[in-house]
Amino acid sequence: MGVEMSLSPFSMFGQVQLSAPGHACLQCNGFITTENLSKEAANYGQKTKRPQVVWPNGVLASTAIGIAIDMITNWTNTIRESEYLSYNANDHSTSDHIMKAYRSKICPHYPILESGPLTID
Ligand SMILES: [Zn+2]
Fold first, then answer.
1. CA 117 to ligand 1 centroid distance, Å
2. Number of domains in the chain
């Protein structure tokens, strides 16, 4: 979630991502890269250029909870292995993130064969 303050009006946006073993992870989605991790580490503890806003973060968190509840209850009859949603807080819309069309569907970073058994404790 962030606010782009260089635009007029300000642009508020965010994303919700679901990563399951063997399917696109945050690296496959292009969300986490070596470059942006280095930038974040260099600026750790510094004031962010993209302030956080409570209410859109609540929308994103609630969307993530909805996905999790669907995975547990299967109330939509949809098998969810990966999600990458884009949230536009200016018009209050959620849609598939543009990167979803370009990412790897099978994750090379965390192969399914290296995951453990599915358990709920
Ligand atoms: Zn991956």
1. 19
2. 1
